[in-house]
Predict the 3D structure of the following.
Amino acid sequence: MSSPVASSSTSTPFAGSGRVAVVTGASSGIGAATAERLAAEGFSVVLAARRIDRLTELAERIGGRAVQLDVTDPTSVASLAAGLDRVDVLVNNAGGAFDTNPVADADLESWQRTYDVNVLGTVRVTQALLPALRASGAGDLVFVGSTAGLVSYEGGASYTAAKHGVHTLVETLRLELVAEPVRVVEIAPGMVKTEEFSLNRTRSQERADAVYRGVREPLVAADVADCIAWAVTRPHHVNVDLLVVRPRAQAAQHKVARDPE
């Protein structure tokens, strides 16, 4: 079944009603917030992540469907694709950062995990669901990147390398799919305060809290979900190539206003 093609009028939003959205990494943070927001926009949401208990609770609350998914496992990704009759929107959100080591002290296992989750996992899911997105007649491929994919910084090489990989993947796909009815969108958030991202990276609650200390109103997951929902509800001839979103307190990767303690 194909989605209706949206009107070419820029004043007419492309409604979510009747469209199916798959969100990876939907058990927490930006993924969970995106699933909730898209459900509120009328999408039928498929929530995919490893932690099925969290997924099930959220899916029941928003009227979505929970599917266990490990993006690093080809069999798991194939199972997700086989269980879907229709896909109109794919939000590639699964990812993460897992260390803060300088390159000289690189933990190559951490680098491999970071690349497998952020880059190869994203390619696996995209490859598996692209036929359904094409068949929809008006598909959306959304990638949750990062400002780390645009600028490098000390102690972040494993993550910045992976997110630079995601950024160039998006650019390449947009070139390759330009003649097809599939939009390719990248949302690149800066500082977002979620319950797990910095904790997974620093492995210390104290260090994780320090990332946001003194910052007035860092972004939260719902802010990024709002950007994603806006992008996929534009008329379908409108492609949001790259949307960089930061808190007002963050002018650049290294320039953050903090209140004195």
